[in-house]
Specification:
The structure holds two protein chains of two kinds. By secondary structure, chain A is mostly helical. Chain A has 13 helices and no strands. Chain A is globular and about 65 Å long. Chain A starts with a helix and ends in a 20-residue tail after the last helix. Classes of the chains: A mainly alpha, B alpha/beta. The complex binds adenosine-5'-triphosphate (ATP) and magnesium ion (MG). The site of magnesium ion has 4 residues of chain B, from helix 1.
Chain lengths: 321, 283
């Protein structure tokens, strides 16, 4: 019993669960990462990682702009990311290549504005605080008053993804099949970009604009290594997103007591490091599973088995009539 | 080419194109294309690269609107949400990351256009299993779609298109990238599907060869113009020469037919080396 308490105390520094900022960080940070991870599954399979990254950079422009006018950065992030989503869709042609070009153009414009705002912000207030907050997030300084807003926006993004679940999967397989079935692929694409804009804005506030991509893409990419089912991929991504963020917060809190600095490391650093670790682990696991499966199949097939997988023979009319 | 009802058909007309022309970016891509498809029949849409085969599919699917002419489904205008057409596109450039097993892709054929998250249901599972069995896909039902071989993916996509019980099945070059064995398997499968389910099947191809044993009708396309009818009616020197706008020879070699550009012809947009063969016992 005493050993357990000692163990818990060794992991959780005193005051971890009683500290208000930590509790807010656990709730808001956790929710935000979960949303990003879930939305990110479709970002990866739709091949829109570049758009996701650009949203983070656009967020930088919005966040720093909000800082300049004294508004809450969250609103700046959301406004710019959503406008960016609209612009990407507007300029984006039907082809994926055209879409990337459009994203690049919007991204360039966003970065220009961000540079201007950050410059103005820094020279104006004579401090780098704004820059640091925008770029690296501020998980521990989110006020309780913001919780409802975070919850609402999270629900919005998750709601859109839930609503579009099947059309998104179908158009990831083939845009042509989806539109032949009557799916309004452009509207679905635009709504999805909107969900992505909201998710990225939320993680801009907590994890920071430059690291938001990691939270969007990382857990999803790891999840896609672990399963080939759509529902499970989303569940895995959610669990990984939540776990790395909570663990990151814990480590960041602990790091206040770490030598040599003794003044704490940023949460974002831990979260991103953990995501990388999880991805590498997931990749190793999937390779091992694949190799293991291959061995089982080929030994079961015996010497006749070629190429690992059984080729079912099909007589021309088999099984149909 | 006139539509002549085949003797003993008594089959229902599922789709008809009537004088369909289509202009895209100032070019006439289709010129007065007319043909009809009937239940239980397999029709080949034959033509070389750029002839207009994929465009004809897009017109049927409503993804392109004809500049002139009509597309009629059982004599009526197109319903807005068309579940009665199954479609397998020419190539689908599948992202290997897509988290779908073959069976998930087939299930999306059932309700992939619906909104919200599907509840797992026994009936749904059962229909998917039946469909997988019908195309002999149980062996790879749990394989990630990005890892399927060309023939396996083709069968999965056919199951995906069939599960919604369409009355018309469109396949754009389903035989491209298949070896001869898979080619014969897929052709046999499609022919038996057309008969057993009494649906109209339209298959595009560069080559008639593999389709000839099973094809009830042919629509031959060249530079956006089409001739249709039975193979004997269409694959003839006079018909194809008129279609191409210059002389072509139709040669019978060892029970096969080769369609080649006429000797004295100036190099033109013609069928330079199109091999087509007529099945034994036809004509
Ligand atoms: N949106 C478009 N705008 C302009 N021209 C087009 C468009 N779509 C197709 N075309 C042209 O129409 C012609 C027919 O194209 P289509 O894709 O239907 O040919 P196809 O018979 O399917 O050829 P392939 O065997 O190579 O698939 C081509 O010359 C193509 O360049
Ligand atoms: Mg084509």
């Amino acid at each position: 019993m005493i050993a357990v308490i000692a163990f818990v105390n060794a992991i959780f520094e005193p005051g971890f669960f009683t500290s208000e900022p930590v509790r807010v960080a656990l709730v808001v940070g956790g929710a935000v990462s979960l949303v990003s991870a879930v939305v990110g599954v479709f970002t990866v399979i739709r091949g829109q990682s570049f758009a996701g990254h650009s949203m983070g950079d656009l967020g930088t422009a919005g966040g720093s702009g909000a800082f300049l006018v004294g508004a809450n950065p969250l609103w700046g992030f959301v406004t710019f990311a959503v406008l960016g989503a609209g612009a990407m869709e507007l300029f984006g042609a039907r082809r994926p290549r055209g879409r990337d070009t459009a994203t690049g153009i919007v991204l360039g414009a966003g970065l220009g504005i961000a540079a201007l705002f950050l410059y103005l912000g820094t020279t104006h207030s004579n401090t780098t605080g704004a820059t640091i907050t925008i770029l690296f997030g501020s998980m521990f300084v989110i006020g309780t008053s913001m919780i409802p807003v975070f919850v609402l926006l999270s629900a919005l993004a998750l709601g859109i993804v839930a609503l579009l679940y099947r059309p998104l999967l179908l158009s990831a397989v083939s845009r042509d099949i989806a539109s032949a079935r009557g799916v309004p692929v452009r509207t679905v694409g635009l709504l999805y970009l909107l969900a992505m804009a909201v998710a990225v804005s939320l993680s801009c506030v907590t994890i920071g604009a430059i690291l938001s991509t990691a939270v969007l893409i990382g857990p999803a990419a790891a999840a896609l290594r672990l399963t080939r089912r759509p529902g499970l991929a989303i569940a895995w991504a959610a669990v990984i997103g939540l776990a790395v963020t909570w663990l990151g917060i814990l480590l960041a809190y602990d790091s206040y007591y770490w030598p040599p600095l003794g003044r704490g490391w940023p949460v974002s650093f831990f979260v991103v490091a953990l995501i990388l670790a999880v991805y590498v682990a997931a990749d190793l696991v999937s390779r091992n599973v694949a190799r293991h499966r291959g061995r089982v199949v080929s030994s079961a097939e015996g010497p006749a088995g070629v190429g690992g997988r059984a080729q079912p023979m099909l007589s021309p009319v088999a099984g149909v009539d | 080419m006139n539509e002549t009802a085949r003797p003993g058909a008594g089959r229902e007309e599922i789709l008809s194109l009537e004088g369909v022309s289509l202009w895209l970016s100032g070019r006439e891509i289709l010129h007065e294309v007319s043909f009809s498809l009937h239940s239980g029949e397999l029709t080949g849409l034959i033509g070389s690269n750029g002839a207009g085969k994929t465009t004809i599919f897009k017109v049927i699917l409503g993804l392109e609107t004809p500049t002139a002419g009509k597309v009629l489904f059982s004599g009526e205008a197109r319903p807005r949400r068309n579940r009665s057409i199954g479609y397998v596109p020419q190539s689908i450039g599948l992202d290997p990351d897509v988290p779908l097993r073959a069976r998930d892709l087939v299930a999306l054929g059932l309700d992939g256009d619906r909104y919200g998250i599907p509840l797992p249901s026994r009936g749904r599972r059962q229909r998917v299993d039946e469909m997988l069995q019908a195309v002999d896909a149980q062996g790879f039902a749990d394989t990630r779609v990005g890892k399927l071989s060309g023939g396996e993916l083709q069968r999965t996509l056919i199951a995906h298109a069939l599960i919604a019980e369409p009355r018309l099945l469109l396949l754009d070059e389903p035989l491209a990238n298949l070896d001869i064995t898979s080619e014969q398997e897929v052709v046999g499968l499609l022919a038996s599907i057309a008969k057993a389910r009494a649906i109209a099947v339209l298959i595009s191809a560069h080559e008639m060869n593999p389709l000839l044993p099973v094809m009830d009708r042919v629509v031959y396309v060249a530079s956006g113009r089409a001739a249709s009818g039975s193979t004997e009616e269409v694959v003839r020197e006079d018909v194809l020469s008129a279609l191409y706008g210059h002389h072509v020879d139709v040669l019978h070699v060892n029970g096969r037919i080769l369609v080649v550009a006429g000797k004295d012809e100036v190099h033109h947009t013609g069928p330079e080396s199109e091999h087509t063969a007529v099945p034994r016992g036809l004509g």
